[in-house]
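A reminder from the course coordinator: this example appears on the midterm review sheet, so study it carefully.

Given structure:
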């Protein structure tokens, strides 16, 4: 089956007891057993839930994976992956990653004895230069949040395989509709399903997809032992969101392209970070490993001051000022004070997350209305 069909049907079948076409919400904490250790595959809802199982099977299918695991949030999924490591292990990570990932790496796992190296992954050789006997994992985002940098997953995978390192790819921005990192050599793909997979800004959820049976058993043990699992209602909402991912992503991409070009030609905008531009440093790689360029972008105004950014941020109406991304509605964000505030100012500014940077999550409203909204806000700058 093609992806659009799997998004709607994978892991799901009409309920055998009623014929309900939608997967039921199994709101239960435990399951009756016929005899000790004799049951229908479900014992306790932290370990298994039929609604979650349907979602995990669908998630695996859409990333061309053998296994899917669901978590209570994207950072809960990240936390589970990090628990594969031990004190003394080292991780090479993208230097312009999501602030919440940077925070859990540096504030939670670094004090536990795991060392992190943050590098520019646009050049894979930057990764090779840092590998030593303690290196166990490479963690990348592509496109990155918020600077839209592109990493060559196949090239990084080759380096990882040659050195027996796990390659983890945060595929939140691209989604399985635009990019499938496992097919390009990644070992683990993670998503904040809060974003595009759920798609309606009404659920917090995270997930992991992978092919290795051994890794799946390790991560499943962490999932059930640590308990950062989603409730059945959350799983139901993500399942519902997945059914329209393909049509939503087409609209996000179409609107994103129009708005990126509008912003690039606006006299008050100094720079637009969007991989669809032919002069973007990662454009050729993005064109090769992605099916389109998405609806995420960041801009730097010609007046790079915080005051100018605030004037734009506080004068949009359709673009709501809020954290998160990937919903049907358009959002505007100030990374330095919102999503990336946990990164020290000097570290942020080294990679370009400056006070004047603005991130846009382009929704699926009418593009002309969105352009008019941004135009009016830019007039206030």
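Designed residues:
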């Amino acid at each position: 089956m093609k992806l659009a069909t799997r998004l709607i049907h994978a892991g799901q079948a009409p309920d055998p007891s009623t014929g309900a076409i939608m997967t039921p919400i199994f709101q239960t904490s435990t399951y009756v057993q016929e005899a000790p250790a004799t049951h229908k595959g479900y014992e306790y809802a932290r370990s298994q839930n039929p609604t979650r199982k349907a979602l995990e099977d669908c998630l695996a299918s859409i990333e061309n994976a053998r296994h899917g695991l669901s978590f209570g949030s994207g950072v809960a999924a990240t936390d589970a992956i990090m628990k594969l490591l031990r004190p003394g292990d080292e991780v090479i990570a993208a230097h312009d990653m999501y602030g919440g990932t940077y925070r859990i790496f540096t504030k939670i796992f670094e004090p536990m004895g795991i060392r992190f190296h943050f590098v520019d992954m646009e050049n894979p050789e930057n990764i090779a230069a840092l590998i030593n006997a303690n290196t166990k994992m490479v963690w990348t985002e592509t496109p990155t949040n918020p600077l839209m940098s592109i990493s060559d997953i196949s090239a990084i995978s080759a380096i990882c395989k040659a050195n027996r390192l796990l390659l983890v790819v945060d595929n939140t921005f691209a989604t399985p509709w635009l990019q499938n990192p496992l097919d390009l050599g990644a070992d683990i793909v993670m998503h904040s399903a809060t974003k595009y997979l759920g798609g309606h800004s009404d659920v917090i959820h995270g997930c992991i997809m992978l092919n290795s049976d051994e890794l799946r058993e390790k991560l499943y043990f962490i999932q059930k032992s640590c308990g950062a699992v989603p409730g059945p209602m959350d799983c139901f909402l993500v399942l519902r969101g997945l059914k329209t991912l393909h049509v939503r992503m087409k609209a996000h991409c179409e609107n994103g392209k129009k708005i990126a070009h509008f912003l690039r030609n606006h006299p008050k905008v100094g720079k637009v970070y969007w991989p669809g531009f032919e002069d973007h440093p990662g454009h050729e790689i993005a064109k090769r490993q992605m099916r389109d360029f998405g609806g995420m972008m960041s801009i730097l105004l010609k007046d790079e001051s915080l005051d100018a950014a605030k004037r734009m941020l506080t004068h949009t109406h359709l673009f709501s000022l809020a954290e998160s991304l990937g919903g049907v509605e358009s959002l505007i964000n100030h990374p330095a004070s919102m999503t990336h505030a946990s990164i020290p100012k000097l570290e942020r500014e080294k990679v370009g997350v400056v006070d004047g940077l603005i991130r846009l999550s382009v929704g699926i409203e009418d593009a002309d209305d969105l352009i008019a909204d941004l135009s009016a806000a830019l007039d206030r700058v």
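Residues 32 and 38 are 9 Å apart (CA to CA). Residues 245-379 form a domain with the Aspartate Aminotransferase, domain 1 fold (CATH 3.90.1150.10).
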